[in-house]
Specification:
Distance between the termini: 7 Å
Strand order of the largest sheet: 1-2
Order of helices and strands: HEEHHHHHHHHHHHHHH
Radius of gyration: 25 Å
Shape: elongated
Strand content: under 5%
Oligomer: single chain
Structural class: mainly alpha
């Protein structure tokens, strides 16, 4: 079991790394094409059907790019499709959801103080929220409301705020933020898989058959691409938020998540305006900074907890271990000065990553991480500031491994 825990931790790292790599590839190509599209210019003498062109320089070479709104007069010999970046990002993200949040549902997904449920129910609820999020979004886009870009964006934002609020009443704060990001990322990837690429294939098929492609397919795809562009930065924040408990673990976490979407839109508006050569809206940075200060303030509003939580049934085996009293003394002496409701270590004002090790339940729930971070490795305490001994580390290893047998 202990070897499996180490393997699983490395698997989590590998999947996370893969997700970052694929995400960089997708976001990079997406941002590039948005900037390219906004920078296109028309000039006399362009080929028939060409909407605009752009000259760019990079890596010591010059690039001359032309865009056709519908399609060129004839099919080019080689055509590159940008889709696998999106698909690989979603698949690796879902794999990480399974490895971290489904396999560790008792710790990361389900909070009995929020909503008591079994692990299978929690996983099914997680999958349902992700699927329903896409369905609601797609129906809104296909409705008459979809004809108004501004009206649609406002309604979609209201829906996202409601989802943010709802998720915090279903899962842990950490999982709520992650799921809001997963729902948004699913919308983005499904836009590519279900709308943008199929519409482009229709245009290509018409071109090959000698038919004039209908421009509506390009218009629909462009609207979905615009949504993807504005949703990217909030998704990045939500995916990184699991490392920052002041974002997900506070009373107004759903308000914080809602404001993050506005900040992301403001930043993308700045870059989009700049790339389109329509001015320099520096006010967006000031507005984003003000909203971020508001987020910081919201994170300081304390969440009132009453009573001491009990360890989950899965964590009871660690409390029942004969080693637990000694382990508790070690953790309280070496770790709880930072990992507590009110940290006593100088310069630490909130428990890192929201991990509380000042109660029996908190220690038991974090048994695996204590084993990996302070037993099997020397990652904790940082720089061994509390002088934990090799004998104490061996105790932590023996405690976990004996309980897992």
């Amino acid at each position: 079991m202990m070897d499996f825990a180490i393997f699983w931790d490395w698997l989590s790292f590998a999947v996370r790394w893969l997700h970052v790599v694929t995400g960089i590839a997708w976001i990079g190509s997406s941002f590039y094409f948005v900037a390219l599209d906004l920078g296109l210019r028309q000039r006399p003498g362009m080929p028939a059907g060409a909407f605009g062109e752009e000259w760019q320089v990079h890596g010591g070479g010059f690039y001359h790019i032309q865009k056709y709104l519908v399609a060129p007069a004839e099919m080019p010999e080689h055509l590159t499709w940008f889709k696998w970046e999106s698909y690989a990002t979603w698949l690796s993200g879902f794999a990480m959801l399974c490895v971290v949040y489904y396999a560790g549902a008792d710790l990361f997904l389900i909070d009995p103080n929020v909503l008591a449920m079994s692990v299978p129910v929690g996983i099914l609820l997680s999958l349902a929220t992700i699927g329903v999020g896409w369905v609601v979004y797609d129906l809104l886009c296909r409705s008459p409301l979809g004809k108004s870009d501004t009206g649609l964006m406002l309604v979609l934002y209201a829906v996202l705020v409601f989802i943010a609020w709802g998720l915090t009443h279903l899962f842990t704060g950490r999982a709520a933020f992650l799921h809001l990001g997963a729902i948004t990322a699913t919308i983005m990837s499904a836009n590519v898989f279900m709308v943008i690429i199929p519409n482009q294939k229709i245009v290509v098929a018409d071109l090959i058959a000698g038919r004039k492609p209908d421009p509506k397919y390009g218009k629909i795809a462009k609207q979905r691409s615009l949504h993807n562009n504005y949703l990217t930065l909030p998704v990045l924040f939500l995916m990184l938020s699991n490392h920052y408990p002041l974002a997900f673990g506070t009373e107004f976490n759903w308000v914080i998540a809602s404001l993050v979407f506005i900040i992301g839109v403001l930043i993308r508006h700045y870059f989009n305006t700049m790339h389109a050569r329509k001015g320099n809206p520096t006010w967006t940075w000031l507005a984003a900074a003000v909203l971020f200060v508001v987020i910081m303030w919201l994170s300081t509003v304390p969440k009132v907890l009453t009573g001491e939580a009990k360890a989950s049934s899965a964590a009871q085996i660690y409390v029942a271990s004969a080693h637990f009293p000694a382990v508790r003394d070690t953790v309280l002496g070496r770790c709880s000065m930072c990992h507590a409701q009110e940290p006593s270590y100088e310069g630490i004002y909130h428990a890192p990553k929201g991990v509380m090790l000042d109660t029996d339940a908190g220690i038991a729930e974090q048994a695996r991480e204590i084993y990996l971070q302070a037993g099997r490795s020397h990652a904790m305490p940082p720089a061994n500031v509390t002088q934990i001994t090799d004998k104490e580390r061996a105790l932590l290893v023996a405690w976990f491994e004996e309980a897992e047998k």
